[in-house]
Amino acid sequence: MLDKLKSLLSPPSEHPDAETEHRKLKISAVVSVAAAVFILLFLLLCVVIPDRGFSANENRNLAGRASFSVDGLRDGSFFKDVTDHFSDQFFLRDSFVSLRSAEEYLLGSRISHGVYIGSDNYLFADPETPDPAKQKSLVEAMSSFASQFENVSIRMMLVPCAAAVIPDRLPPDAPVRDQLRDISDLAAALPQSVSFVDAASVLQAHSGDQLYYRTDHHWTGLGAKTVFDNTASQLGIDNPSTEYDCLPLSYTFLGTLGSQSGRYGTRDKIEVYVPKPGVLYYISIPDEQVTRSSIYDLDKLNEKDQYQVFLGGNHPVVEIRTAARTGKNLMLFKDSYANSFVQFLIPYYDRIIMVDPRYYYDNPSTLIRSNGITDILFLYSANTLFTDNSLTDCLVNAVS
Amino acid sequence: MVFSSIYFVFVFLPIALAAYYLVPKRGKNIVLVAASLLFYAWGKPENLIFLLFSVLFNYLTGLEAGVLKKKGAVRAMKVMLAAGCAANIFLLAVFKYIAGSMPLGISFYTFTVLSYLFDLWQGRAEVQVNPLSFLVYVTFFPKVTSGPIVQYADMEKQLRERELTRKQLYSGFSLFLVGLFKKALIADSLGAAFSAVTGSSMSVLSAWLSMIFYSLQLYFDFSGYSDMAIGLAGMFGFRFDKNFDHPYLSKSMAEFWRRWHISLGNWFKQYVYFPMGGSRVSGGRILINLLTVWVLTGIWHGNTLNFLVWGLYNGAFVILDRWVLNKVMKNVPSVVRILLTDLAAFIGWVFFFSSSISAAFRHLSFMFGQSPVGFADSTALFALRGNLVLLIIAVIGSTEIPSRIWNGLITENRLKMNRSLATGIAVCGNLFLLVSATAAMLSGTYSSFLYFKF
Predict the structure, then answer these.
(1) CA-CA distance, A7 to B277, in Å (whole number)?
(2) Which residues of B does the annotation mark as catalytic?
(3) Is A78 on the interface with B (CB under 8 A)?
(4) How many Å apart are CA A379 and CA A341, to the nearest integer?
(5) Which residues 26-85 of B are in CB contact (within 8 Å) with A?
(6) Sequence spans of domains, chain B
(7) A126 and chain B: CB distance < 8 Å anywhere?
(8) Most Cβ neighbours (<10 Å): which of A264, B50, B216, B418?
(9) Per-residue pLDDT tens over the stretch B355-406
């Protein structure tokens, strides 16, 4: 064995015989022909197979055929368009990307396109870094907002990302930021008039459950339910119902992290929770001019981003009216995390107005007054709140 | 365009090759020039202006020098050539140190045209009267942007007459694939690892990893690119000498620089060091000659003070080797000498990749314990875990082991395998790596739109 290895590793003979020379040529010929066939075959396939328009995995329109123009030639953009078109439309593009991710994983890498690949098929987004200056202006905006609505109960709930709640499933030594500390820093800075609802501790206490999707950055229905069950009284809800019908709607959900990482193998289950006994309600979405009797939009299960089954995705304003007759009306300033949380809130309010400041540019105080709002809840994932300015802008709008 | 892109491998190269092989002999240089200009102009056509100006200027300078030489006015010819060289160097200096942005590959093609003028001066070559041949010499796409810097005298004959053999086609393509694998599979991954650990504040381990990742990345990137260039040139019938010869196996820095970017070293030797007297002068003069070469080598690489320091640092080692280290190190075991040489070269690269001298010294101070984050932080450990296998592959890959195994197992078949089996392994291995390299290149263009922001 050792002899064989030794002979293998000894230098090539200085005067190779004719046979070796011949063999050398033959091998390089066969290798060249095989590689050339591969290249030409894919060139042919790329030319023959029709272009794809939209990539669900990349969630963007792929580059189409480059259009020629003299300007494009001069500034070079034509060349870029040609190159982009070819690589975007490359035959089996997504499979190649996925192969690359798999190979990198095999070599030991536990990060792919910025997504951490954890144990138990969990994928993790990197927690965002808050900007202290933006943080400060948000707190100031909340404070003056709260002073304008002194008769309304104002609360804030910040949901940490999976990396903060189930760090034991992160790959070893993953250098992620301590988001729990960022959250408690913000909580400590909030004005007295805004009471902070601690979702992080609840989630941490139940970290053995599947609180987050494996392939998506959102929390699961179970994650939202767990937080609701344990924080209802802090939200001003007495004697909440603890019984639900749990309905699995999908077993084929490939979330944003799955797409981003190029790891398409794992699929998630989407479950919804319907409180028992229920309450009659209807939901209206002004920007789409639709009114429905269900907050679940089952059509979205046929699309790539199945999380949109909750409310049909994000909208500037969503209005839910119920027959609960509690005398309480809730205004929810929110991001997409709230979409799967609102199902638990429905029985306890007559009206729930959801405002997504990322798409809502009006003055929200009109909505607050006209709907007789009694409670305001800011419900955000920490990652959105730490990176998005729109809530600050919206609150500044409200007091101006 | 770069060689390690999907478009080059799958579209540009097949079309250029097919056109080249299909046209009759006298059309081949036209195809080469057309392909080369398209390759060069790709993405930034205005670069072409400077390249073509350089070609025209130096072609005319050469012609004029030829006329003067025929008249027997050797002195006037030399003045003419000297003025031409000065103009080239002046232009390069203006772009490098004043303009701030440089036309693609100007450092390489300026040295290419200088080689022509110097060769005329030294009488190593004849004046090129055929403009097409001269265009091929300067703009030949395998080498125009990143070398190797082929000397005119070595390419002169091939511009006119070259043989297209199947052997050159196949071995050229095989070498191109090796270079592609080096670049797409190893260098780019090492580059990502380097970026992941490098920052303004690093643990001791991070700082070491950063230096090691970068040093290996640079080798695989540059030698891979050179392999692709030499392989491509071979497919078009040109023979270029190798540009890298396992430099990280060198036992001294002097040896390292004979094995790293060989064409640049040879250029400086031929056109700076030898004309100054080389080593055939007194010790003091040798010292001056070496220092001159290393100052020039430093500033050729970049326009910040870092590169000057880096050049002098390397020059200092070469000088030390010559007069001190070769005696001191004589009885030191080879392995130790190799490791020490690599350490010296790697520390040199810290000046090469750092943004400023103070950043380089800060990096070195992190490495030697003055780190605010301690010995090892999670960034370093995560990068080490994630890239350990890659690191081992890269270290082995920078030795002669892979080529020896290939030779022993496949070419010479020393294990006496079934011939077809050996051939099968060769083909499957290369195809697997080609598929993987394709995946790596495509993965680089994969940008999942972050819709959770919306």
Answers:
(1) 45
(2) 301
(3) no
(4) 9
(5) 41-46
(6) 6-162, 168-378, 400-453
(7) no
(8) B216
(9) 999 999 999 999 998 888 899 999 999 999 999 999 999 999 999 999 999 9
